[in-house]
């Protein structure tokens, strides 16, 4: 499994139209990628007269991909910032 570790930063604000604070900006930063290795179940495809072998993540849906090609996203930290309205 390829693991992507991300930091998430939510920015909230309150505006005259909506009294409740709400998210208006979301930033995601990839801080680490742990590779899963080479594909364990490559797929053979045909395009006209050409036969090619490709990694399963390029052809199969996520539930049929091998363990090395499957991607997992892990949240490292989540930061919530609230911008107060300027007076």
In short:
This protein is mainly β and 87 residues long.
Please give a structural write-up.
This protein has 87 residues and is an all-beta fold. The chain has one domain (2-83). It contains no helices and five strands. The strands form two sheets. A three-stranded mixed beta sheet has the order 2-1-5, with no helix packed on it. The mean pLDDT is 90.
Tags for this model:
0% helix; two-stranded antiparallel ribbon; mainly beta; three-stranded mixed β-sheet; 87 residues; single chain
Low-confidence stretches: none
Number of helices: 0
What percent of the residues sit in helical stretches (DSSP H or I)? Answer: under 10%
Q: How many E strands?
A: 5
Question: Could you say which overall geometry the principal axes of the C-alpha atoms support?
Answer: elongated
Termini separation: 50 Å
Question: Within the largest sheet, what's the order of strands?
Answer: 2-1-5
Approximate strand percentage: over 45%
Alpha-beta classification = mainly beta
- The total domain count is 1
How large, in whole angstroms, is the Cα Rg?
21 Å
Mean pLDDT across all amino acids: 90
List the helices and strands and how they pair.
Layout (H helix, E strand, L loop, with lengths): L1 E14 L2 E17 L8 E5 L2 E5 L16 E13 L4
Parallel strand pairs: 1-5
Antiparallel strand pairs: 1-2, 3-4
């Amino acid at each position: 499994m390829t693991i992507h570790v991300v930091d998430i930063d939510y920015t909230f604000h309150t505006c005259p139209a909506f009294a409740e604070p709400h998210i208006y900006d979301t930033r995601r930063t990839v801080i680490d990628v742990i590779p899963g290795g080479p594909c364990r179940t490559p797929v053979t495809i045909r395009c006209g007269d050409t036969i090619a072998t490709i990694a399963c993540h390029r052809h199969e849906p996520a539930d049929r991909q091998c363990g090395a090609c499957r991607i997992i996203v892990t949240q490292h930290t989540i930061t919530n910032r609230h911008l107060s309205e300027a007076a």
